[in-house]
Every structure is written in C-alpha cells, then in structure tokens.
Amino acid sequence: MRKKEIAVITCAAWVIIVSLYMLLAQQFNLEIFCVLGFIGIFAVVALMEPRYVQPGYQRKKWYLIAAWIVIFGAIVTNNVMQTLL
Questions:
Q1: Distance (Å, whole) CA 63 – CA 58
Q2: E strand or H helix at 1, and its extent?
Q3: pLDDT in tens, 40-61
Q4: 3 alpha carbon, distance to own chain's centre
Q5: 25, 3 contact by CB (below 8 A)
Q6: Residue 21 near residue 36, CB atoms below 8 Å
Q7: What mean pLDDT, rounded, does the chain reach?
C-alpha cells in the first residue's frame, strides 16, 4: 500500500471510531466530533509529510485543514450567539 492509501484508511478509521464511541455513549456533540476529527486528520497529515520534498497532495492538505477550521469556527460562533441571545 502507498502512503496516501494508508492515510485515507487511517483518517476514515479515526472518524468512524470517534463517531461510534459518541453514539455508544449517547453523547453525540458536533463540536467535540469536529475537534477530534481535526486532530486526527492533522496528526496523520503531519506524520506522513516528507522532509525535503513537497508532493502535490501535500499542497492540497491546507484546503482540508482550512475547511475544518471554518466548520469549527461556525460552530463556535453559533454557540456564542446562542449564549448572548
């Protein structure tokens, strides 16, 4: 298997494990899910990054990271607005 395939399988497994744990505990919280998903994806991407060469898929990782940050920012903004109103 190549590194990209292992990374995709690892990220999918991480998100599935987090969601199953939350469902089994009957405490599904979107904020915690997004944070744990972001941490897992960022850890996998950081660990598979080569040292001296930057392949094309590594340049695209920032789009994924930016999307998670936007989603988390929207959730935090929503909670702040609910608290203030």
A1: 10
A2: none
A3: 877 777 777 777 777 676 677 7
A4: 18
A5: no
A6: no
A7: 80
